[in-house]
Design brief:
heterodimer; A: 115 residues; mainly beta; six-stranded mixed beta sheet; four-stranded antiparallel beta sheet; globular; B: 113 residues; 11 strands
């Protein structure tokens, strides 16, 4: 079974600074998808960014970008110019292309943004 | 569009009671799923469905039943609640392409005493 590991239970960043959240995954497959979700205190799960494994180019969405290292099975999230509204739990998730037994999630990283 | 709607938002049950968590989506998504979220464990898949009349087990299915009679609705039934089922439950749906992200409901916080 695929596993997703987020090794940082908590992180903090100063407002306007940059922070990187780590994620590694274990798989024997070559075709899959990776996602980062944000969960603010409202409990809502919000898609931040996604990456297709077959794409070499790292995905970006405004202030959010990923560093996808397929050989290392690493998928880190970089948040630039951190804002107070970025404070949340962040979950890394993996989905295989081969079946519908859906996403595997990491345990999450709680991000605090200091004013 | 309302997206994925879950009810109730909060629920307290006594051990042994049964209840149904409701989930409905208005995006015509074939795929729907239920997850539970526990501290330090992320989200774990309970059951999922790839279309009306088709359901399958996920990672942690014991103690839960599902059915899918329509594309829109995917209820989760707790047959005999146990304290170990205290958790936050999320319903999610997505469109067919595998690259599609999950759309989540707002969750149900369930406490079993």
């Amino acid at each position: 079974a695929q596993t997703v590991t987020q090794s940082q239970p908590e992180m903090s960043v100063q407002e306007a600074e940059t922070v990187t959240l780590s994620c590694t995954y274990d798989t024997s497959e070559s075709d899959y998808y990776l996602f980062w979700y944000k969960q603010p205190p409202s409990r809502q799960m919000i898609l931040v960014i996604r990456q297709e494994a077959y794409k070499q180019q790292n995905a970006t969405e405004n202030r959010f970008s990923v560093n996808f290292q397929k050989a290392a099975k690493s998928f880190s999230l970089k948040i630039s110019d951190s804002q107070l509204g970025d404070a949340a739990m962040y979950f890394c998730a993996y989905r295989t292309s081969y079946n519908n037994n859906d996403m595997r999630f990491g345990a999450g990283t709680r991000l605090t943004v200091k004013p | 569009n309302a997206g994925v709607t879950q009810t109730p938002k909060f629920q307290v049950l006594k051990t042994g009671q049964s209840m149904t968590l409701q989930c409905a989506q208005d995006m015509n998504h074939e795929y729907m799923s239920w997850y539970r979220q526990d501290p330090g464990m992320g989200l774990r898949l309970i059951h999922y469905s790839v279309g009306a009349g088709i359901t399958d087990q996920g990672e942690v299915p014991n103690g839960y039943n599902v059915s899918r009679s329509t594309t829109e609705d995917f209820p989760l039934r707790l047959l005999s609640a146990a304290p170990s089922q205290t958790s936050v439950y999320f319903c999610a749906s997505r469109s067919e392409p595998m690259r599609s992200p999950l759309h989540f409901g707002n969750g149900t916080r369930l406490t079993v005493t």
